[in-house]
Design brief:
- With 168 residues, the chain is of the alpha+beta class.
- It has one domain: Gcn5-related N-acetyltransferase (GNAT) (Aminopeptidase), CATH 3.40.630.30.
- The chain is 34% helix and 29% strand.
- The protein contains five helices and seven strands, in the order E-H-H-E-E-H-E-H-E-H-E-E.
- The protein has a seven-stranded mixed beta sheet with strand order 1-2-3-4-5-7-6, sandwiched between helices.
Length: 168
């Protein structure tokens, strides 16, 4: 499946918040607490999304039929989770990689990560980093299967997250 990434315009913010809300509901049905705050997001989380849109960091993922199938946020720095390490040059940070409801389990996430690795390496990045709620062991294993290595943990007011990186 061929994928393309398109920067999300600020007019798509509500659509992204709805996707996050729907995803939190699905995770809860699976017995997971991850992303529970998106069911009724606090202002700081809404502001985090707003900041991402203002910086042009959110991207929609489209399949070859030009249907959007997912979204992710790509940052050049990330001190929220990575502290001073989050300022390293030639590193990119992936957040909120979500497939559209009904699309999970079709390999889209793995294809996004593979395409991102190729694209980022072309543009001079040497590492990709992401975090994952440590309570979701299945998702943590998934990222490890995609070539990411756990390099630390970060406790926030919402969760304890494993920190992962992948050399490009």
């Amino acid at each position: 499946m061929k994928l393309t990434f398109k920067q999300a315009g600020s007019d798509k913010m509500e659509e992204v918040l709805n996707l996050f809300r729907d995803t939190s509901v699905e995770l809860k049905k699976m017995g997971l607490t991850q992303w529970g705050y998106w069911a009724d997001p606090p202002e700081e989380k809404i502001q985090w999304v707003r900041d991402g849109f203002e910086k042009g960091e959110f991207h929609f993922v489209y399949n070859k039929e030009n249907e959007w199938v997912g979204i992710f946020r790509l940052l050049e720095t990330d001190t929220l989770y990575w502290d001073d390490k989050g300022l390293e040059k030639d590193v990119r940070y992936i957040h909120s990689l979500v497939t559209k409801p009904g699309r999970s389990g079709n390999g889209i996430g793995a294809m996004v990560l593979k395409k991102l690795a190729i694209d980022l390496k072309k543009f001079g990045a040497h590492k990709m980093r992401l975090d994952c709620d440590s309570s979701n062991s299945r998702l943590c294993s998934y990222y490890e299967d995609q070539g990411f290595v756990k390099v630390g943990e970060k406790k926030t007011s919402f969760s304890v997250n494993n920190l992962y990186e992948r050399i490009l």
